[in-house]
Design a protein that fits this description.
- This protein has about 375 residues and is of the alpha/beta class.
- It folds into 3 domains: about 80 residues, no CATH class; about 120 residues, Rossmann fold (3-Layer(aba) Sandwich), CATH 3.40.50; about 140 residues, Rossmann fold.
- It has 13 helices and 13 strands.
- The strands form 3 sheets. The chain has a 6-stranded parallel beta sheet with strand order 2-1-3-4-5-12, with helices on both faces.
Length: about 375
């Protein structure tokens, strides 16, 4: 195998990878190259870790950089040369502080970040809250992944299309014309509802995730359900209605234990003959809150109240084996990241649909006699 010769000698500022001269006197890549006795292009390759540069030459360049207190090539200049920022945007449905309390979202973002790291890209989180300092209208991103965003985010999609930015969505509206990574939310919820039906439960209620961008909290009414824009919530409601067509409940608004507790207290503070014997919570965090509310009211789980969740995560502080549906949260993010990599390489990715798994626990049993 013939080895390519290393670039050597000063070749001037026209070489690829050379920083522009800095008027403030700070060292540039060309300064480092001169100190190391190599061309600027060779110095650039030494910093990148790629190309025909020997270990000895790389060591000389890095030593010269340390002597000159040079931190590396200007990332802005690099991105301009490549025509890419090296940043993938992740549009999330809530403020970052709220989103980071959701283990499912964290696992999904972990999978996404790990997959795009293979092409040296970083992740920029952008809450879907309209324009701000960093928004879809101005963020310097190469692609955007919409993570559980609402079906009413048509304006966001249109902005990204006008900017010619590749898009992938996780659990979004199939009619949006975007590559979609999905899970069987309806099928999973149907399995949970059927499990309760098989145990003999007739008075069953739902504690629902948010139905709209405003995260409205309140009774689950036909009007609110018909106006719902959050795909995940709508699909899980449909699965429950496949078994219990007239099921009602309470909208918690978000996947938080305290929201589940507040919703359950409302559902349980009724006469015993009207109280649900089972509650179908649309997330494991909500289910943990439901169990806490039941215990506050002196109800035993599952003897007095059966509780199911959805996600298959470990909930801090919940010392129960929850009956739930396990979904592949990290795998969703990985699949979305893989689709982004494909699109940036000029290929056309395909949609991915994940199955879910019923996970029995000790929080369900027959209704009380």
């Amino acid at each position: 195998m013939t080895r390519q010769p290393e670039a050597s000698g000063a070749t001037g500022r026209g070489d690829a990878g050379v920083d522009a001269a800095r008027p403030d006197g700070r060292p540039t890549l060309a300064t480092v190259a001169a100190r190391a006795g190599v061309s600027p292009s060779t110095a650039s390759l030494a910093f990148s870790g790629h190309g025909p540069v020997s270990d000895d030459t790389k060591a000389k360049v890095l030593a010269a950089a340390r002597e000159l207190d040079y931190g590396g090539p200007d990332p802005l200049a690099q991105s301009l040369r490549r025509g890419r920022s090296g940043i993938i945007g992740a549009l999330i449905p809530a403020r970052i502080g709220v989103s980071f309390r959701d283990p499912v979202l964290i696992q999904t973002l972990d999978g996404l970040a790990e997959e795009i790291s293979a092409i040296g890209a970083g992740l920029l989180l952008m809450p879907d809250l309209g324009d701000g300092e960093v928004s879809v209208t101005s963020a310097p991103v190469d692609a955007v992944v919409l993570v559980g965003c609402n079906a009413d985010a048509l304006g966001t999609l249109e902005v990204l299309r006008r900017r010619n930015i590749p898009m992938v969505q996780i659990e979004g509206d199939d009619s949006a014309g975007v590559v979609t990574i999905s899970v069987d939310n309806r099928g999973g919820s149907r399995l949970l509802a059927q499990h309760l039906k098989d145990l003999g439960h007739e008075r069953v209620a739902i504690v629902a995730l948010g139905l709209d961008r405003g995260r409205t909290v309140g009774p689950l009414t036909a009007e609110r359900e018909s106006a719902a824009t959050v795909t995940t919530t709508v699909e899980r409601l449909a699965g429950a209605r496949d078994v219990y067509p007239h099921i009602g409940g309470w909208i918690a608004g978000s996947s938080r234990s305290d929201a589940g507790r507040a919703a359950a207290l409302t559902l349980l503070d009724v006469p015993p003959n009207e109280r649900p014997t089972a509650i179908l919570a649309q997330s494991d965090l909500l289910a943990a809150g439901v169990i806490a509310a039941a215990e506050e009211r002196g109800l035993r789980v599952p003897e007095d109240l059966s509780v199911v969740g959805f996600d298959g995560i470990r909930v801090d502080g919940l010392e129960r084996s929850l009956t739930t549906i396990r979904q592949p949260s990290q795998e969703k993010g990985t699949a979305a990241g893989r689709a982004v990599v494909e699109m940036l390489a000029g290929r056309t990715p395909v949609a991915v649909a994940f199955d879910v798994t019923f996970q029995p626990g000790d929080t369900t049993g027959p209704p009380p006699a």
